[in-house]
Amino acid sequence: MKNLYMNHLSLLNNFFYAFFILLTISGCTNNEGNRYHITNNYNKEAITYFTQVGFNEKGTLKKWQNDMTVSVIGKYDRNDLKSIDEFIKVFNGLSGNIKMKRKENGGNIIINFGEDKMFNPKGYVGLCSARSPFFFSNEISSAKILIAPILGAKQKRRTIHHELLHAIGLKHAIGLDGVKTEYKSYNMMGVNGYESIDDYEKQTQDIQNSELDKWAISILYDSSIKPGLKKSDFIKSIKK
Ligand SMILES: [Zn+2]
């Protein structure tokens, strides 16, 4: 009788133990901060830049989970296609499993070289809207880019690269605690905006390939970085 009771008790204990483990596992999957760690090593400067450009205004990271195809419409020329292909080459060299290529028609990223007053009522020189498959999703599944025809060749190239960086999921550097950033303008996401086209032409003469932008692509498409990651959890995991 005593034995039977003990067996029953240990069975009960096992049941609670199993329940406890289950709770712990589900607790972990609900908490990215505990589970999350970056597997690769990135330098401090790259991490600081990414902390500013990798998350939206709500502090959430969004990225593609499928390959990207870029189609072009409007009035474009050979140089524009060359600029796109240059970006694609750089991206594919850094993006791990997710790849990008050009497609004749119907790509999931459409670049319109032209005017679209509905999409661009304020007349920006470049614009990008990256979209998710449904409202709460942190995945990007399509993007629409507008490139104004008024730009000179160098600025157009820069604008194409800048808008494609938006399309893959990067934002403007907002500065820590909302302070305006001090990033040089050749860091594509390092500046908030320009006062006029003249200002833009003046500030973007210094065209270099920004190492920080390349690092930002690498970190964003690092397979250990998941869509929906919170900026606060990313910062916490860096400090560990
Ligand atoms: Zn922008």
Please, could you describe this protein's structure?
- There is one protein chain.
- The chain is an alpha/beta fold and 240 residues long.
- The protein has two domains: 2-30; 33-239, Collagenase (Catalytic Domain), CATH 3.40.390.
- It is 42% helix and 13% strand.
- The protein has eight helices and seven strands.
- It has helices spanning 2-30, 32-35, 44-53, 78-94, 153-168, 197-203, 211-220, 231-239, and strands at 63-64, 68-74, 100-102, 109-113, 126-131, 139-140, 142-147.
- The strands form two sheets. A five-stranded mixed β-sheet has the order 3-2-4-7-5, covered by helices on one side. The chain has a two-stranded parallel ribbon with strand order 1-6.
- α4 (78-94) links the parallel β2 and β3.
- The longest helix is centred in the first third of the chain and has 29 residues, at 2-30.
- It is globular and about 50 Å long.
- Mean pLDDT is 80; it is low at 1-34.
- Bound molecules: zinc ion.
What's this model, at a glance?
The chain is 42% helix and 13% strand. It has 240 residues and is α/β, with parallel strands linked by helices. The longest helix is centred in the first third of the chain and has 29 residues, at 2-30.
